[in-house]
Amino acid sequence: MKYAQDFIQSYWAIENQFESTYVSQSILDKLLKGKIKTLTELRKSNSENYAENKFYTVIHYKVKEETSEKTFDISEKTFDIIDSIFINEQ
Known about the structure:
- The chain is α+β, with helices and mostly antiparallel strands.
- The chain is 33% helix and 27% strand.
- The termini are close together.
């Protein structure tokens, strides 16, 4: 877990928008079952369950949508990708 946190704080990870979020067992369960589909939903659920113990760390990052079309649309779509899940030391 220490190495994962060191990685998250590295220059490369910050530049590539890697982040970590501590979650509880119930939030992780919803995430793995597909009931939570976005990072916004994850954060909202996590804040609603703030009193629960956060036994897991979810490492995630953003990816820009790549399209073959050349458009002048200023807004870029991004997707949140879960990279890994760690069990926290207790």
